[in-house]
Amino acid sequence: MNTPQSALKQEIEKRLTSTKKMIAERGYDALVVYGNNKVSGSLRYLTDYFPDRAGWISLSATDISIVDGAAAMVSPNDETTLLVDPGLMPTREICVDRILGGSGFSAKLGDGLSVQNLVQLFSEIGQVKRVGIETFDKFPAPILLGLMKELPTIEFVRSTIVEELRLIKSEYDISMFRGAAKVADLGHRTMVEELINNGVGKSELDLIRQVEDAMRRADPMYEDSCSSSPSLICSGGAVVGTLLHNASHSKIIESGDIIHWDIAMRFEGYPVDTSRTRAIGKVSDKHHRCYEATMEIQQELFSAAKPGILASDLTNLAEKIATKNGYELWNRFIGHGLGWDVHERPDMGTEELPLEENMVLAIEPRLTCDDIYLLGNEDMTLVTNSGGVPLTEFPKEPLELS
Description:
Shape: globular
Order of helices and strands: HEHEEEEEHEHEHHHEEEEHHEEEEEEEE
Helix content: 25-40%
Structural class: alpha+beta
Distance between the termini: 49 Å
CATH topology of the largest domain: Creatine Amidinohydrolase
Strand order of the largest sheet: 6-5-4-1-7-8
Number of helices: 9
CATH architecture of the largest domain: Alpha-Beta Complex
Number of strands: 20
């Protein structure tokens, strides 16, 4: 029987095969793939491990280590090794050949992700001249400097191998994103029901907490869902200088408010990132026209999201439609690639990267009305040859809740 865990292991074996092939093609002798408590997508892609905590731990009377990361060491012909910061503990089965862990809270200097262990692993490979480092911009500087000192003949370079592979989702990935989209729809349904029944008088924070609770109950795994992206909301007016903001305990929903919520959660490790808009009671024709313009923009983006179009051209298209309707695109932002770090490539604002079939995007054009309300919707969207297909299906109308 193909259990969920065995299916995941098979999927990761395929990913490792592709990674090792590209390691050889790029001329690397090894690849070190780093992830931390905030950005763990490439590490998770190859191991299914995510660093689930952060802090400090004493390694001796004089040595203190910051705890928040891990790395996978991959070479074309050897087993994959996971190196885990001292103090971090794998909390479920991890899909790697070997784990060099931090021994929980009894860790000592040199455990887990350390210069000493990486030097030892390179020596096991044999002659190593060139090593790629993934998530290079976040790789711990003390470890990189230590490696350069201990191994002066090795060239350490920035790698994008796993970053590139993650752009295109497999059948396994897409099935998991479909599951995540169902959880997203559950979140929207929970929000709308609460707004109808008990919305007026509740705080933004109370609403978001109820939505997240419903989604979390649908997830068979537990992990910190907001380590990479919190749920956001706008119910009229800016909070701490921005319309779309962290939910406030002091911002109370009133009759006539237009509420735009952007919920983030996880389903078996895969991200939920989606938004909807509703109004408590009647709103003006001006608000209706603005909302209709957001839906026109999004529908045109779905139609255009086919293989070959540049990601940045989607933003240009959205701006053109917004201007035609007499509006300005909010923050010149229409969305992003969707993956294990939630906000991923392609960046649809600036990246001139052609879309490919089976990319997953979060398409989320928004417009503002009087700089008070934010209107729009965000859908988790699969790129196909016939255009973008929304995976999230919760209705976008009616705008007004009676």
